[in-house]
Specification:
Strand content: 15-25%
Subunit structure: Component of the biogenesis of lysosome-related organelles complex-2 (or BLOC2) composed of HPS3, HPS5 and HPS6. Interacts with HPS5 and HPS3. Interacts with biogenesis of lysosome-related organelles complex-1 (BLOC1). Interacts with AP-3 complex.
GO cellular component, one term: BLOC-2 complex
Helix content: 25-40%
InterPro entries: BLOC-2_complex_Hps6_subunit (IPR017218), HPS6_C (IPR046822), HPS6_N (IPR046823)
Distance between the termini: 140 Å
Shape: elongated
Low-confidence stretches: 148-154, 745-757, 777-802
Domain BLOC-2 complex member HPS6 N-terminal: 1-385
Radius of gyration: 44 Å
Oligomer: single chain
Domain BLOC-2 complex member HPS6 C-terminal: 400-772
Mean pLDDT: 78
Amino acid sequence: MKRIGTLRLLSDLSHFSGAARLRELLAGDPAVRVRCSPDGRHLLLLRPPGAPSPQLLVAVRGPGAELERAWPAGHPPPLDAFFLPWPARPALVLVWESGLTEVWGAGVGPGWQLLRSTELCPGGGARVVAVAAPRGRLVWCEERQDGAEGWLGPPPAFSHYVCVRTLEPSGEAGTNLGPTHILLHHCPSFGLLASRKDLFLVPTTTTWPGVSHILLIWSPGKGKVMVAAPCLGLSHSKSLNPGRGDTWDFRTLLRGLPGLLCPMKPLTVHTWAPTPQGLLLLDFRGTVSLVQSHGGTRAVGTLQEAPVGLAGSAALGTFHGTLACVLGSTLELLDMGSGQLLERKVLSTDRVHLLAPPAPGMEDKEELETRGGLRLLSALGLFRVGWEAPQGLEVPSAEDLVFEEACEYYQRRSLRGAQLTPEELRHNSTFRAPQALASILQGHVSPSTLLTTLRAELRDYRGLDQLKAHLVAGDEEEAGWTELAEHEVARLLRTELVGDQLAQLNTVFQALPTAAWGAILRALQLQPDGNGRLRSHAPPDVWKKVLGSTSAGKEPPNGILPLFELLCQCLCRLEPRWLPPFVELAQQQGGPGWGAGGPGLPLYRRALAVLGEEGTRSEALELELLLGSGRPKAVLQAVGQLVQKEQWERALEAGLALGPSSPLLRSEIFKLLLAEFARHRRLDAYLPLLCRLCPPDLAPAELLLLLRTHLPDELEPPTPFPEPGTEPPLSVGLLRALLEQTGAKGRPSGPVLSLYEDILWDPGTPPPTPPRGPVTTLQASDHPGWEAWAPSGQGLCVTDTG
């Protein structure tokens, strides 16, 4: 059904202080400059030089004091004036061509008071030609006289400088003005137009023709400047962050951007208008174009009438995807997507001003009621232009909307083929949630009870709405997006993480992983314990949601990861060293079907799957996950990898780290390392650790049999000493330490259980010395030769008969 554009009277200006003077200035001076305060309650009117007094008028709707200023002949009025978006009190800044700047505030004392006065050009020899006040800053373009930079100064065409100073409130009646920083030097004359996020530097009639087809877009929140030529369709981005000391020589800037200096006609623009979507420009053919913050330009539409010369007044604005253009006494509404003319109205006056919409989050009650349209100001009053539904169109009640939305929701989740209807939901006691919400909307619940129930949620939604308003305004975008991501993750963790909720959580982690992980830290209450491990104080319900997985054998749709895999992937990107401790902590949690102790994949294998296919994973992370899993097969696999890499000490420590509850696993690790000990001598330096790992119930005979199994085959007869360059074989000295370890519990009483056991026990005292007998001399006939050896060293005498 076709919408109807309406023009509704909001106020006849009688609610404003000094209403008579306000109407007089609006009706009498077509060149008066009109600005609206961020909260929509104050109107500022500034008349051009030479106009009769007062040259400045500030009117306020409702209670409050007005401000009138007049300057005598020889003292020019301000070049421009702006309201400052300070939430604590109304404030405005006045800037003169000489550089004099005054900051005025209301609400501190009676009426308006001068808060601060300063000079933008303290050295003299310069004049301000344009000024703008984007949020928290004061930016101006000044022209410096010839010789201000010395006799080698730039030519007059490039004798302008664009400077910036921060401008912020301080206390109840203070103002902070930061130091001056030069953004551009040696540049032509530029006009300055500010939107909520960007500052546009546009050419003027005095700009040097060679560069009058170029405009610049500075985005303070991003620290970048975009140099664009709309007629060429070209744009280039450069860094421009005053916080880092960035500054540009305009001529050097253009020399480094190819294609921008092609000979082109100057931009013939009748009216510029900054909007949240970008910069609108109206040329003398009646075509309206939009220059976006990234430098791209597109045509929006063409008006039925074109402006006649520079003398004709024009105003541009946007609302709800609609372009509003006031040209003389004609109002045209165009669709910004298609450029189609939607409606055209003839006004009763040609002196109409479009007011900028209030800043998000600063509207009062009356402004909230008129949100969604544009406000037009004339001597006849304050009007709102917007779209309204035609009469006779029946709008469903809030109660009907509740049951219709609930019907669609339950139908999507229902497995039965019958169609649900709103009437069935009204009378069926099975579906209680829509009935409870409908009763609240009908007023069956008292406001105090409802407020008590929803107080925490309302506080969260209010904070979230204010945060979104700051993001729209371009304030501290990085911190704002971080906080928004944390809010979203916390909200999703309170829902059932399936389907769209899980997909949305994946999207948040991909876009802002650091902020999303910060929300998880708070939800799980994770803290390091100082020993390289993590501890958590989160309730079991939270861990149940974290460890839950998809059905066994089913891959998540469209690559969407379950929450546990999502957290492991995020840790791999941010802090890989904390992934193994996190998996170990997760393994300590769990319940039936949680993923930690259920029939599905163990958590360490789910974490390994996130690292990628085998062979492409980080070997260090894979080892830590296998060792920390507590699973015998995984630990043996890790020890086997350590053995292959000859990391003997770490392999031994992995076995020693196992508690007494894992004797079989310790024994398997000992046998694996004992085999290596038998094959080569690279484990000799770690023999004390190997002895500690030796199972206490291992008998010496079993130890020797294990060693014999893994001893290398001898291809040649043994020699007393190894050949040079070859590895020595296993010696009895090294073996003795292991044999002693097998009997560390003490020698058993009773018969000897092993053939080798008697050599391990030392009685403590040597055996008694046998008695000495007389020395006898062997006769020649009794001499057996050199090959004869006495069995004992007692009374040995050898005589050679030969």
